[in-house]
Amino acid sequence: MNSRVAIVLLLSATMICAQWSEWAATANAPCSEDCGMYGVKVTHQRTCPTPGACPGDAEKKEKCGSKLCLFPKRTCTKGYIKGLVANKLQCVQKEESTTEMPTTP
User: In terms of domain of life, where is this protein from (predicted)?
Assistant: First the structure.
């Protein structure tokens, strides 16, 4: 067998068989913003043995930064409102709020 053909077959097999590793939680991932639920942080990561050969994302992310933002920034991002959580005002999703507070632009 020609060495070029063998290399092509090996690369093709690697790309077809490439599978993601298991999801691994990321401990103490920083939040990109500290208020208004404007931030995101990486909660889980996984790796692909052949970069670009695995479908989907390598990271799971979630919104973060629940404390209220100060003026002039909006208090909470779209889809979030001021709500009372454990006796603290925080940004919460609209349907999760137990005590709704008026928002400021």
Answer: Eukaryota
